[in-house]
Specification:
Pfam families: HTH_5, V4R. This protein has eight helices and eleven strands. With about 280 residues, the chain is of the alpha+beta class. The protein folds into two domains: about 80 residues, Orthogonal Bundle (Arc Repressor Mutant, subunit A); about 160 residues, Muramoyl-pentapeptide Carboxypeptidase, domain 2, CATH 3.30.1380. The chain starts with 15 loop residues before the first strand and ends with a helix. The C terminus is likely disordered.
């Protein structure tokens, strides 16, 4: 991390993670620190579990944990079932990363001619919005900035409002309400692909249909929106997994929605709680 105090080692992938704590924004470059923070975004872990997951000596992990606690990125408490052990909790929020992964992502061939035409339809607000989203994401990619966590949090905030507009106690009825809203605003079309697990297929996805091919899913905003809508529907935190995406080379996006108490509670906490 920028200004790391001790236990610093070069990172193999060159990615720098960005976290926001109560008093500062921190850049994390250390491979071990990144591993610790990624684990704690899943759930709370004991010190011994972190050591096992990291595959490093206890003394090495202890130095990194001390640094993260001093930086205000994680907290430590005594295990209520064993006062000889410590439980670690993340107390910062991921806000993105600096990465070279998508900087040179190739664009789709059919978009090479766009320079000679307007990238949106004059007077068509949805097409202008889609162009703006694409422009923002592609510029960020070109600069080596991944803003997925911010997009997901923004999607969650919007989803909490949309959840009440599209709600229907019947799952298929709610998905139809969602699709009607999406189509009305030029966001795409949503189909309920299966109910066990819940699977949604999105055609014409506003977030990623016009993005360069990256080889992986890029719909962080949609994941935030869907997380809020289905958390409200199930009255329980959910886990959203994007398994197909335009940006991965598919001709649609597909999301799997599952109740997931462990992962869901961490996501729910990170989205809604104040940084402490």
């Amino acid at each position: 991390m920028a200004g790391e105090q001790s236990g610093t080692e070069p990172d193999a992938d060159g990615e720098i993670l960005l976290f926001s704590s109560k008093n500062r924004v921190m850049a994390i470059e250390s491979e071990v620190k990144k591993k610790i923070l990624e684990l704690l975004q899943e759930r709370d872990y004991s010190f011994d579990e972190i050591v096992t997951k990291c595959g490093k000596a206890k003394s090495t992990v202890s130095v990194h944990i001390r640094d993260l606690i001093n930086a205000g990125l994680i907290t430590s408490r005594i295990d209520p079932f064993d006062n000889r052990k410590k439980i670690l909790t993340i107390s910062a929020i991921p806000i993105g990363s600096l990465t070279n992964i998508d900087r040179n992502a190739p664009t789709r061939e059919e978009r090479l001619t766009e320079s000679s035409t307007l990238p949106f339809t004059p007077g068509d607000i949805p097409s202008f919005f889609r162009w703006g989203v694409r422009l923002f994401r592609t510029e960020a990619m070109a600069l080596g900035i991944n803003v997925d966590p911010v997009l997901e949090r923004t999607g969650w905030e919007m989803g909490t409002i949309l959840a009440h507009l599209v709600y229907n106690p019947d799952l298929s009825g709610m998905v139809k309400n969602m699709s009607d809203f999406w189509q009305e605003h030029g966001l795409g079309t949503i189909i309920l692909s299966s109910t066990d697990p819940v699977s949604l297929t999105v055609h014409g996805c506003f977030e990623c249909e016009d993005l360069p091919i990256t080889g992986h899913g890029t719909c962080s905003f949609d994941i935030g929106v869907l997380s809020a809508i289905f958390t409200n529907y199930f009255h329980s935190p959910v886990q959203i997994t994007e398994v197909e995406c335009y940006s991965a080379g598919d001709d649609h996006c597909r999301f799997i929605i599952k109740k997931n108490k462990t992962t869901g509670e961490v996501f729910f906490k990170n989205i809604n709680s104040q940084i402490v």
